[in-house]
Design brief:
The structure holds 2 protein chains of 2 kinds.
Chain A: H1 17-21, E1 29-33, E2 39-40, E3 55-59, E4 63-72, E5 83-90, E6 93-101, E7 115-123, E8 126-133
Antiparallel strand pairs in A: 1-2, 1-3, 4-5, 4-7, 5-6, 7-8
Chain B: E1 5-11, H1 22-36, E2 46-49, H2 66-73, E3 79-82, H3 91-101, E4 107-115, H4 116-120, H5 150-165, H6 169-183, H7 197-202, E5 205-207, E6 210-211, E7 220-228, E8 240-247, H8 267-275, E9 287-290, H9 295-304, H10 313-317, H11 336-340, H12 346-357, E10 370-375, E11 382-389
Classes of the chains: A mainly beta, B alpha/beta.
Chain lengths: 136, 390
């Protein structure tokens, strides 16, 4: 991957901290309900499906599908590069979506329905989960 | 129930970089609205605002809080409310309607003030969170991915709509072109010079599929209305707008990116809720003032309100004739936020009342009896149906 761009990073002082550091070993994790296995995202202290109160971070495959995307041209942060913001549904539970960046692909080639896989950008201790075309 | 009425409306000067204070603009709009309602300042016994005063610098977004306005006018209040959470910007008006309907107050002044243009200074429109050292809360799910703006978040709704229904930029352009045509007939609009489809496609891209002309224009300005008990309608010397119904429902996840159907927004729930509370039907609407912070939002509202079918807004607006002033459903008759300025929701309410009263001048729609107002994009939505009370 290219050099990391400037990013506003999460503060890691919330229950989501595990999500943002999860990529240290290259694995994406979501909070999973201990009772019914529903993935709770964003993390919350209750399962919205069964109202169970116990949950643990659990590994997922890191595979997903581009549900929608936008090619950003506006230099909101002063950088001025063209980049792709994507909305990715994860394979294990398609009602979980991540706003992310679609990388390692020409922006004009990104399309809805495209299979993608996670790739982490190292901002240690934060690892930002981005997605690239499967098998790239 | 004897539903309350919008007895008076007022607007301050509206413009780019006016350099005037937010309270100054608010008082200008408020005194105009109070006089228009046939009232004295001392008659006002309720006060409401969106989003209320916020802690710290809001970049011209918030306007003054209700305590500031109350004290400036030395209002004696039976009810007061200001806040950002609820059914979009129009929540403040809906709160006022509820306060009047329940007898807590008789005449509620409601205002929305922005000074985003002056606050922007010489720079461009800033991204949310740029320059901050770290982010928590809901924004942690978007800002780290350089999705800094509602433009980015809602562009993905639009893109999904394009994907599922074959909607095109040529179709979406009609929202912007229609707004500009109407703004040309509105002396208070910001952008009044004609715009062609070629101009639209020549504009720089912001975030696909939104180009510059799909994004509203930050301005300075204040809008105020007075919500009064129904019987006050007889005491004013002009027609008033009666609040026929409001829609406040929010049934899906209140989230920019976890909302169940990306081709819709919570507009879907608020609109269904509104129609469940009236005998009027979408076919009865004579004029539609629908939030267009981004052009696609007005399309989503057309669909949510049943003014066309789900997924059919592209063909519905194609060519622009249907939504023109002399079309079957005149839309955003003042120019919307795209061309008349980002008064953040309240401009639509103001215009709906102007139209029902027949005060639209060159842009007046012929004899409207029913107007619908919609506010909000993304995870918030509120809507209001108004009827003319002569």
């Amino acid at each position: 991957m290219a050099d990391p761009v400037f990013r506003v990073l999460p503060t890691l002082d919330e229950p989501s901290a595990f999500f943002w550091t999860s990529g240290a070993d290259g694995v994406l994790r979501f909070l999973r309900c201990s009772a019914c296995s529903y993935l709770i995202h964003p993390p919350a202290p209750v399962c919205p499906e069964c109202h169970g109160r116990r949950a643990e971070p659990a590994e997922v495959s890191g595979r997903g599908t581009v549900h929608s995307f936008t090619v950003n041209h506006q230099a909101w942060d002063g950088t001025g590069d063209v980049y792709v913001i994507g909305l990715v549904t994860i394979d294990e539970q398609p009602d979980v979506r991540l706003t992310t960046n679609i990388v390692d692909i020409d922006p004009d080639a990104v399309h809805i329905g495209m299979p993608v896989e996670v790739v982490f950008e190292d901002h240690s201790p934060v690892f930002v989960p981005l997605f690239r075309p499967v098998g790239r | 129930m004897n539903m309350p009425v919008i007895s008076g409306i007022g607007q301050s000067a509206i413009g780019r970089k006016l350099g005037r204070g937010e309270l100054d603009l608010t008082i200008e709009a408020s005194l105009t609205a109070i006089a228009d309602a046939g009232l004295e300042v001392a008659d006002i016994d309720g006060l409401a605002a969106y989003p209320g005063g916020v802690m710290g610098d809001s970049g011209g977004f918030a306007g003054p809080g209700t305590p500031t306005v109350q004290d400036a006018l030395r209002l004696s209040l039976n009810w007061h409310s200001g806040g950002p959470e609820g059914p979009a910007q129009i929540q403040a008006v809906i709160n006022a309607v509820m306060a009047v309907a329940t007898g807590l107050a008789r005449h509620v002044l409601v205002y929305r003030t922005v000074t985003e243009s002056t606050a922007q200074g010489s720079g461009g429109r800033a991204g949310i969170g740029v320059g901050t050292s770290g982010v928590g809360g809901p924004f942690q799910w978007s800002l780290p991915f350089r999705a800094y703006s509602a433009a980015n978040w809602l562009a993905m709704n639009a893109q999904r709509h394009f994907h599922e229904f074959g909607t095109t930029r040529e179709q979406m352009a009609q929202i912007a072109l229609n707004a500009r045509r109407n703004a040309g007939l509105n002396p208070n609009a910001i952008f009044r010079e004609p715009m062609s489809i070629d101009d639209y496609f020549a504009a720089r891209m912001i975030t696909t599929p939104f180009c510059l002309f799909d994004c509203d224009v930050p301005v300075d300005g204040s809008t105020a209305v007075v919500v009064s008990v129904a019987e006050h309608a007889r005491a004013v010397d002009h027609a008033v707008a009666r609040v026929e119904a409001v829609g406040t429902a929010l049934r899906g996840r209140p989230s920019w990116d976890q909302w169940d159907d990306m081709t819709t927004m919570p507009a879907r729930d608020a609109a269904a809720h509104m129609w469940s509370r009236t005998d009027l039907r979408p076919v009865d609407v004579d004029v539609a003032e629908l939030y267009d912070g981004f052009s696609w939002l007005a399309m989503a509202w057309l669909e949510a309100l049943g003014l066309c079918g789900h997924g059919e807004s592209g063909p519905f607006i194609e060519g622009g004739k249907r939504i023109a002033l002399d079309g079957e459903l005149p839309l955003n008759t003042h120019g919307g936020q795209l061309s008349a300025g980002r008064l953040h929701g309240f401009g639509f309410l103001h215009e709906a009342v102007v139209q029902l009263r027949g005060d639209g001048g060159d842009r007046q729609v012929r004899d409207p009896e029913v107007a619908v107002v919609a506010n909000g994009g993304g995870p918030v939505a509120g809507t209001m149906l108004l009827t003319k009370l002569a």
